[in-house]
Amino acid sequence: MLAYTLFNLLVSGLQVLAARVQVTWDVGYLNISRDGISTWQAIGANGKLPIPPIYVTQGDVLELTAINNLDKPLSVHAHGLFQRNSSYYDGAGMVTECGIPPKSQFTYVIETRDQSGTYWVHAHYGTEAIDGLRAALVIRDLDPKLLDEYDEDVLLTLEDWGQGPLESMVDMLKTTPLVNLIPNHPTVLINGINAN
Asked: Peptide bond before 50: cis, by omega within 30 degrees of 0?
């Protein structure tokens, strides 16, 4: 009982120390070859693809500002995170918001008070996520006992990478028999590097 009380005091004290973590994504197009096979116009942030992971600690408030330099609307979704009393920050395009118009920006405020683990932050309007706009979000747990259960954290991201922007491939995907798609299968990327 004493250990439980001390743990709760520690967590309460650490929540006072919670940070406001500010991240800016200047979202735009990049001509890039991530698989070593084809170069095409993908979508990245701050001129980078893959987008670096975001690290916060449980209790922190993440302020993610998305600056839309695309020629279409954009929204950003923190996949798997609860949006209690803040569904307007959920980032589901045309569901909880209309999207960020081109040449505009919006700041998402994401609280992490009762969640920890590894999540995704990704575009949620059209095909932007499949075309590259996604990153891992790691929320470190406050429970000190967990630190004794492993030696190190290793973040591995796995992703499919197609032969071009998804919008340009939709008609082909609708009309081509599956057996004929195999030569054009996506490349597997591990942490943004060709794994094939």
From this structure: yes
